[in-house]
Amino acid sequence: MEKPRENAISWDECLMRMARLIAERSKDPSTQAGAVVADRHNVIYGLGYNGFPRGIDSDKLPWEREGEFADTKYAYVCHAEENAVYNANAPVKGCKIYCTLFPCNECAKTIIQNGITEVIYESDKYKDVPAFKASRRLFELAGIKLRQYQTQK
Question: Which residues pair with 78 in a beta bridge?
Answer without folding.
Answer: 51
